[in-house]
Amino acid sequence: MSRKKTSTKQERFIGWWQLRAELLEITPTIWRRVLVPENIRLPALHQVLQAAFGWTNSHLHEFVIGSLRYSEKNPEWSEELKQLDERRVELDQALGPDSRCFDYVYDFGDHWHHVVIVEDPWIRPEPGKPARCIAGENARPPEDVGGSHGYAEFLAGIADPKHEEHDNWLTWAGGSFDPKRFDIEAVNLALAKIKL
User: φ and ψ at 7, to 5 degrees?
Assistant: First the structure.
C-alpha cells in the first residue's frame, strides 16, 4: 500500500499592500495608489513605480528605507553612495513590522523624490493578478526637464504663447502637454507586463 507524502513545510501567506506614492515638491500633487504583494522585491517595485508614473527608466534610482539605501548594483556608484544591492530585498522584510513609509528617488540629476506610504497592508486581490493602479492624479513631469524648478518654468512657458521658449518646449514635449492628464488604463496595461 502506497502512502502519500505530506508536506511539513508550511506555505507562507502572501498578503497585498495598498501603497500611495507621491512626488514631492510639485503642486498640484502628483500621486498614484497601487496594489502590490507585500513580498515584492525592490527591483520589481522599481518597475511598478516607473509604470505607475510613466517614467522611462532611463536614470538611476534608489530606495531609502529606514537608514539604509538600496539600488541596482553599480560598481561606480554603490560604494560611494553607500547603497546596498536591491536584487534580493523584499519590501516587507526591508520595512520590518513597524515602519510604513519609505522614499524612492529617481534620476539623481532631476532628483524626483517620491514618498511611499503603506496605507493598507491587508488587501486581498485574486491570486495571480498583476500589480495594479487604483487611483492617481496629474501627469508626471517630462524626463530631463530640470527637476521641480525646471518643471515650474516649463509649465509657465507652455502656458504663455508669448514666452520665448513656448514653441521650443512644446515641440520638445511632443507637441502638447497636459499636466492634469492621468490615464489609469494605460498605467494598468504597463503594470500587467511586470513579472512580480
Answer: -80, 130
Q: How many helices (H) and strands (E) does the chain have?
A: 6, 8
Q: What would the pLDDT profile of 129-156 be if each residue is shown by its tens digit?
A: 899 999 999 999 999 999 999 999 999 9
Are 89 and 169 in a shared domain? no
pLDDT of 93: 94
> Which grid coordinates are listed for 172?
520638445
128 pLDDT tier (thresholds 50, 70, 90):
confident
Among candidate residues 46, 98, 111, 39, the one with its CA nearest the CA of residue 72: 46
Report if residue 3 sits inside a domain: no
28 plus 118 within the same structural domain: yes
Length of the chain: 196
What is the distance between the alpha carbons of residues 3 and 162, in angstroms, rounded to a whole number?
83
Is the domain of 97 the same as that of 42? yes
**Structure confidence by residue, pLDDT tens digits, 9-26:** 555 667 899 999 999 999
